[in-house]
What we know:
Elements: E1 2-4, H1 16-21, E2 29-31, H2 38-47, H3 63-67, H4 77-81
Antiparallel strand pairs: 1-2
Amino acid sequence: MAYSKQLRSEHKGKHSADKDVIRESNYLVPKYPPYMSEAAKSIISKLCRPRPGQRLGNTKNGIKDVRNHRWFGSMNWHKLRVGQLDAPTVRLIRKGPCYINFDRFPVDQTKAEEEFSGWDREF
Length: 123
C-alpha cells in the first residue's frame, strides 16, 4: 500500500472532487491497490486513523467493533477460541531434523569489504 504525500492544504482551490480524496488534513492518505476489497480498505483505514480515540477497537464498543467488522464477516470466533479452525494453508512438513524443511544454500566464502566511511567514530 502506498501513501500520498499531498496535504489537504495543497488542495485548496482545486476541483471539489480532489478535496473528497484527502480525508484527514495534514496526514498521509493511503492509496490502495485496485485488487483490494472494500472490506479490507475499510478495516485498514479504521485501524489507522490518526487520532487514537477514533480507531477501530479504541472506541465505546472496544474489541467488539473489530470482531463485528465486515472484514471478519465469515469468521467463526467460537471455533477460533477453542482451536477448531483449519489453517488456510497447510505445508507439508518432512520428517527428520528441524532444519530439513528449509532450503539449503552454499556457504558464502567471499570476504566482506572493509568499511571506512567513519559513520561510527563517535561510538
